[in-house]
Amino acid sequence: MPEDHDWEAYKVPPTRTPVAERTTSVPNPITFIQTVFSYVLDAPVTFVREWIERQQAKNKSYYYHQKFRRVPDLSECLEGDYLCFFEAEAQWRRDRMVDQEIVEIIRERLGACKQREGPNEFQNCAKELELLKQVTKAYQDRYGDLGYHGNARTCLMKQKHRMMEERKAAQ
């Protein structure tokens, strides 16, 4: 297509909207309201929002990593302090779930090692197997024989009885 157009051959159609010619010196009130809104309301809010976003970008926190504060153990609760009992029970349940996940992760690592090593699994996966034995024994010592309805009180009593048996065996 040629660069120089013949404007007489291809005439531009006339615009249908007439150009507004200003005949008054009074400013348009809509433009004034838009400018006031922009500077008074929009600009400060936008500035604060951008500042908050910059601060949050520096300290990124992930909502799914919830961190609970440690509460006193059931043995540290005062008599009749039911709120402390409830918090200790909830803490014990969280600890039990964490310990279950630890055992499961170690078990998965051992399975992956066995899959990866094939016939040499007994030599090359001995470290993972030993770690799984230790973790499983620790889990059984703490939570074994409690059953599905085990709670912090029965777990504490089990640990107390185990400690008493160890003292008797030492004497």
TrEMBL record:
GO cellular component: mitochondrial inner membrane; respiratory chain complex I
Keywords assigned by UniProt, alphabetized: Electron transport, Membrane, Mitochondrion, Mitochondrion inner membrane, Respiratory chain, Transport
Domain of life: Eukaryota
Subcellular location: Mitochondrion inner membrane
Key word Electron transport present: yes
Major site of localization recorded for this protein: mitochondrion
Membrane topology classification: Peripheral membrane protein
PANTHER family: NADH DEHYDROGENASE [UBIQUINONE] 1 BETA SUBCOMPLEX SUBUNIT 10, NADH-UBIQUINONE OXIDOREDUCTASE PDSW SUBUNIT
Family (UniProt): Belongs to the complex I NDUFB10 subunit family.
Function: Accessory subunit that is involved in the functional assembly of the mitochondrial respiratory chain complex I. Complex I has an NADH dehydrogenase activity with ubiquinone as an immediate electron acceptor and mediates the transfer of electrons from NADH to the respiratory chain.
UniProt-recorded name of the protein: NADH dehydrogenase [ubiquinone] 1 beta subcomplex subunit 10
Record organism: Oxyruncus cristatus (sharpbill)
Gene giving rise to this polypeptide: Ndufb10
